[in-house]
């Protein structure tokens, strides 16, 4: 634990909606694409800050399944930026023992991007100091739907009985079932919604919203989110008295 986090409870799993790149660029009379480039640079810095603070899992919402509706020029640029970022950062992730995984429906991505994803995931598959999940062409409803389809197929094949399906079994069919649910959700850019991100997994996650646009998000803003998290009492359905008694 660093000096800056000595009195802060650092969440194990942080999930972030990196919102505000386009608005940040427009405010500076720049093209939206320049905002996305700045946002990628900040993502790298936040990953480093999280690693130093002791975060074990970082999940970044890079591209939602709804983002395909954006202008073609912007989508194409994002795909190229994604390829460049993976190619440039993969070895650095390996050096820092960080495992990277892309979560989402990759079938719609250009072949070059799919190849870059596969290469980066294979390169870092044995890393265990930290997990970096990049949600791309991801949607929470898609995640739940694909889990339901898999369960139905298993029931139809006689591999699973309907009465055996419970929350835990369902969870095991979601895309990040191998990792604990997020402890802290951060959304930048001033919007107060989760935007179809990790719907199943955020059931008991602490939510933190800030007006800061993503390219302006820095270590101080991250620590402010962790400080807010430190003040929360996570009861998971219990009363405050029950928690106090269990801790005494």
SS summary, helix count:
8
Q: Unreliable runs, pLDDT <50, ≥5 residues? A: none
Rg from C-alpha positions? 19 Å
CATH topology: Undecaprenyl pyrophosphate synthetase
For CATH, the homologous superfamily is named as Decaprenyl diphosphate synthase-like
The sequence of SSEs as H and E is EHHEHEHEHHEEHH
Report the β-strand fraction as a percent range: 5-15%
Helix share bin: 40-55%
Form type: globular
User: What's the total count of β strands?
Assistant: 6
Nearest-integer average pLDDT: 93
Structural class: alpha/beta
CATH architecture: 3-Layer(aba) Sandwich
**Lateral arrangement of strands in the main beta sheet:** 3-4-2-1-5-6
- Structurally, the number of domains stands at 1
Summarize the main sheet: 6 strands, parallel
| The level-1 CATH class | Alpha Beta
- Please give the alpha-carbon distance between the first and last residues: 25 Å
């Amino acid at each position: 634990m660093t000096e800056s986090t000595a009195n802060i409870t650092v969440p194990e799993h942080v999930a972030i909606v990196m919102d505000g790149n386009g608005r940040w660029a427009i405010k500076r009379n720049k093209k939206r694409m320049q905002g996305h480039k700045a946002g990628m640079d900040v993502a790298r810095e936040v990953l480093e800050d999280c690693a130093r603070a002791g975060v074990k899992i970082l999940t970044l919402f890079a591209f939602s399944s709804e983002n395909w509706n954006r202008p073609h020029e912007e989508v194409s640029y994002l795909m190229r930026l994604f390829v460049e970022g993976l190619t440039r950062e993969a070895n650095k992730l390996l050096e820092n023992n960080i495992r990277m995984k892309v979560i989402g429906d990759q079938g719609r991505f250009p072949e070059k991007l799919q190849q870059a994803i596969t290469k980066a995931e294979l390169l870092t598959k044995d890393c265990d100091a930290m997990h970096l999940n990049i949600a791309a062409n991801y949607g929470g409803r898609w995640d739940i739907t694909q889990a339901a389809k898999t369960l139905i197929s298993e029931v139809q094949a006689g591999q699973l009985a309907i009465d055996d399906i419970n929350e835990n079994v369902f969870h095991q069919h979601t895309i990040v079932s191998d990792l604990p649910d997020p402890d802290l959700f951060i959304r930048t850019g001033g919007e107060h919604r989760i935007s179809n991100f990790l719907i199943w997994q955020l059931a008991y996650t602490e939510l933190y919203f800030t007006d800061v646009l993503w390219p302006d998000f820095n270590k101080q803003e991250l620590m402010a989110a962790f400080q807010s998290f430190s003040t929360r009492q996570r009861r998971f359905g219990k009363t405050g008295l029950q928690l106090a008694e269990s801790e005494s």
